[in-house]
Amino acid sequence: MDNIAISITDALMNWGIHPQIITVLISMIPLLELRGSILVVGGFLGLPFVPTYITAVIGNMIPIPFILLFIESIFNWMKSKEKLKKIPLKLEEKTMKRSSQIEKYGYFGLLLFVGIPLPGTGAWTGALLAVLMGLNKKKSLLYIFFGVLLAGLIMTILAALIRFGLIAA
Fold this sequence. Notes:
Elements: H1 2-14, H2 19-27, H3 33-44, H4 49-61, H5 64-79, H6 86-96, H7 100-105, H8 107-115, H9 123-132, H10 137-163
């Protein structure tokens, strides 16, 4: 994951794109999200942590309202197309396997799911889970936002530890 983020960052910096814009862009990419952007921009490139944290949170949150509002319609359309129907079915199946924490703890479980940076968790998956589980979209957006703030804080601490050589990358 970090190698992909580093490669994307290198390419964008070679094009002269400002590192904070790169942070926003990487934070919007599924799987990388703010975890990858904070590690690369804050930890490896050495940019200031506060602006990196803020832009990573903003970038990670940009796609979330669209996912909450439109993913169900997009998936339904894809399911109506023979060549595309396997994609949403597979995503739904894979995502729902992660739903136990939210079923058990409700919206607080959604916050923790998004906020604790483990593989396969994050704002994108949290938003998809919220939709698939029929959760209130406005409330889900709020809890996902708090989860993103928590994940950003955890990743910023981790990036600082890496930058200052307290842990190995």
